[in-house]
Specification:
This protein is an alpha/beta fold. It is built from 9 helices and 7 strands. The termini are far apart. 44% of the residues are buried. The protein binds nicotinamide-adenine-dinucleotide.
């Protein structure tokens, strides 16, 4: 069953990792998708990869500067003009941080907040305007397991993900009247390029702390997004769905 047949989606941070898995899962489920990245080369590489998997996929690539609200608005309008509607946005682009509070540079703190929080606000605002006009839509955010417990370094990253949860719950309450659902997925440790490259000695103790006995695959996370994007979740809004194997670190 194609859960997103006839729907259109835009996915930020869609060139690799969790975002690319979301793009692929949405395409397999009948959606038309705009994948966004920070560089044209990585966008083109992801498009090439997807077209090689299935030449019939309806997918385009965009490169809006996520710090620039008018470029984001333009990207949203391009999706609507290209595919005929704008139904789903997945705010997934994000950077993590590990600096100690004693060495943290204010500009590094700001950089994390600008992408993980400010950009999510700009993208949600641009998407909500179009969705309201067309009678509804779905806004989805990538949070993190650290949004529940914090993390013992890199304070900007957990702070930004707590903010993602706050924005998710607040916008769900504000936008329900416009038939716009807003939810987040909170992944645990997920096997993106960076995690896959970790040495055995680092990954083993991480796995030992995960009751399901393995790290997550990007597809595990993408399937949660698929559910929340689809009509199966038609009465679900303001939720933060953990996809972490019950890890509590
Ligand atoms: P990744 O580093 O593999 O991919 C990041 C994506 O964000 C890329 O597509 C990149 O183009 C985009 N991006 C980075 N900086 C950007 C910028 N300045 N402007 C526009 N786009 C930019 O990351 P990932 O591990 O797949 O993470 C995706 C999301 O999942 C992030 O929000 C991250 O915080 C969250 N997350 C990841 C994990 C994990 O273990 N991988 C766990 C919890 C949450």
């Amino acid at each position: 069953m194609e859960l997103l047949k006839g729907k259109t989606a835009m996915v930020t941070g869609g060139t690799r990792g969790i975002g690319l898995a979301v793009v692929r899962t949405f395409l397999k489920n009948g959606a038309s998708v705009a994948l966004c990245g920070s560089r044209q080369e990585t966008v083109d590489k992801a498009l090439e990869q997807l077209k090689a998997e299935n030449p019939d996929y309806k997918v385009i690539g965009l490169c809006p500067d996520l710090q620039n609200p008018s470029e984001i608005e333009q990207a949203v309008n391009t999706v609507k003009e290209t595919f005929g509607s704008f139904d789903i946005i997945v705010n997934n682009a994000g950077v993590s941080a590990r600096e100690s509070i004693y060495d943290y540079k204010p500009e590094d703190f700001s950089r994390t907040m600008e992408l993980n929080v400010n950009a999510l606000f700009y993208c949600s605002q641009a998407a909500a305007k179009v969705m309201k006009e067309q009678g509804g839509g779905v806004i989805l955010n990538t949070s993190s397991m650290v949004s529940l417990y914090g993390q013992p370094s890199g304070v900007a990253y957990p702070s930004s993900k707590f903010a993602v949860n706050g924005m998710t719950k607040s916008l769900a309450r504000e936008l329900g009247k416009d038939n716009i659902r807003v939810n987040a997925v909170a992944p645990g440790v997920t096997k993106t390029d960076m995690v896959a490259a970790l040495p055995e000695a680092v990954i083993k103790p991480i796995i030992a702390g995960i009751p399901l006995g393995r790290v997550g695959e990007p597809e595990d996370v993408a399937n949660a997004f698929l559910y929340l994007a689809s009509d199966l979740a038609s009465y679900v809004t303001g939720e933060i769905l953990s996809v972490d194997g019950a890890a509590r670190t």
